[in-house]
């Protein structure tokens, strides 16, 4: 179990003041006995330092459908493995976000701390990074346990090892310690020792005894994506928020190419203007964060969604999840058909010229140098079953595919679950209030 160190409580007044000024929504909570503080990590997109002419929008879509397929494959495995012989005990198959869809958090590991870039992923549970000695696939930064005084191996009988569930590969290590293995839809994978380490959040605090994977054998596209491991944010006892006992976490996904960065915060309070929507859990397969969508307003048109479409069924199928690693938003095929009709009816006043782009719908060419957030035009709202409504602008529903072409960042899916992707979430503070089972959306709070 993660324990907070005493140094967490030692903050300068200047640091507290500067943090509050930077994020007026953040409140530092001090609870007697629990010593709860807000922890922050720097969060950026790999394209954050590129200008718009350098962004290759199609790279954001590469592998996106594979991720959708594997998210659904993982759900099928969880829901039907007891009755379907096709689902065996293979490694977890949760596709990693490709470089274009990734958002990267900087986290200090070990004592003394060394900073590493990890992909922040609500669709993953296990946190891991490349470790020495490494037998394969350790490009870029590699954590050296021999230089850390806080590195501790775990036994196969430990609670943390048991919490790995499918990723637990005890018995494969030569020293008999806890081992893990995770693989991803783009053929990336990591295998190694599951250990505990001290993790640091810059100036905002340190947490000891957090279970992470020390990847000795890795493969695929990890180093190519600008990160050296995964920060697992999913709803699992072994996920990062669970281990540090965070009551909430929040992020703001900046627009790629904007030149900006933001923060990934833990234990932060949602902004006052946040629209808070019920956060649901799938009792049959508690591996993703669900919401219940009831309608979409596009301009003057309202697309009604039958309650049965996005309500989690008794068999665990259905629903719509919020995912940080999927780029586009994927809607049920029938819902998408009504949605795209409404969009095209209301898109007549958009300033761009319609163009055709293979594999995407409703594409427009704008003047060179245009950003999605600068496009003026059609308003959109998502409506949820608890009566809450979240507004979105062009910066949320358009994806840039070249220097001047933007396409609607929605696609149809016939799979068992739909997905709200990271383009639709961009430019707003998204708060996962785990204690109150709410997810908050607050525009322009990066």
From TrEMBL:
The Peptidase A1 domain covers 103-442
Which residues constitute the catalytic centre? 121, 323
- Say yes or no: keyword Protease present: yes
Pfam families with a match to the protein in the record? TAXi_C (PF14541), TAXi_N (PF14543)
Q: Which residues cross the membrane?
A: none
Q: Does the keyword Protease apply?
A: yes
**Which processes are annotated in GO (biological process)?**
proteolysis
Any single GO molecular-function term of the entry would be: aspartic-type endopeptidase activity
Entry keywords, A to Z? Aspartyl protease, Hydrolase, Protease
Task: Output the PANTHER family linked to this UniProt entry.
Answer: OS07G0603500 PROTEIN-RELATED
Q: Which family does it belong to?
A: Belongs to the peptidase A1 family.
Q: What is this protein called?
A: OLC1v1014255C1
Q: Organism source for this protein?
A: Oldenlandia corymbosa var. corymbosa
